[in-house]
Specification:
Elements (H helix, E strand, L loop, with lengths): L1 H39 L7 H23 L14 H33 L12 H4 L2 H19 L15
Length: 169
């Protein structure tokens, strides 16, 4: 069962990494288009800003889950480095439980926000509704929750080759 869960999390990790990377790539490509149209062509486009915002939210919430699983998130370890091994382990468990609580909060209220705004159109970008543009919040939180469960049940995955993809260490 653990091996199957790990392989599902590996697939989810890769997909999430690609989604976050593509969102960043699109955001980096769309912003100059908007600047060029506004200041060079003197004709502002309405869609680059909402697309960039959707990409930024996607990159942030999906990328945070990827970063958590890879152990590459920002961490202040000044205190835990000075604790005994058991005290540090307790701190890490507490941190994971707090992140779980935050992720559940974002999942719950992000889903409620999406449902509430599902039919509301975005004037500048009519292909999406406001609810659809906030979907990365509950999706990213759900992915983070799955990665937290994985870490708490099966240990950190930082050392595995699929997670170290692109790492030089």
């Amino acid at each position: 069962m653990a091996k199957r869960y790990l392989s599902l999390m590996d697939i989810l990790y890769r997909v999430s990494m690609w989604v976050a990377g593509l969102a960043l790539l699109v955001m980096v490509g769309v912003i100059p288009v908007g600047i060029f149209a506004r200041y060079i062509l003197n004709s502002a486009l309405s869609w680059p800003e909402p697309v960039a915002i959707i990409c930024m939210v996607t990159f942030t919430f999906i990328g945070a889950a990827v970063s958590y699983r890879a152990g590459s998130h920002i961490a202040v370890s000044m205190v835990t480095d000075r604790l005994s091994e058991q005290a540090a382990r307790i701190c890490f468990i507490f941190a994971d439980l707090m992140l779980m609580a935050i992720s559940i909060f974002i999942l719950w209220y992000g889903a409620a926000l999406c449902i509430e705004l599902w039919e509301q159109p975005v004037a500048e970008f009519p292909l999406f509704t406001a609810g659809e543009s906030y979907l990365p919040l509950p999706i990213g939180s759900a992915v983070t929750i799955l990665f937290i469960i994985e870490k708490m049940a099966l240990g950190a995955q930082y050392h595995r080759p699929v997670v170290m993809l692109g790492s030089t260490s």
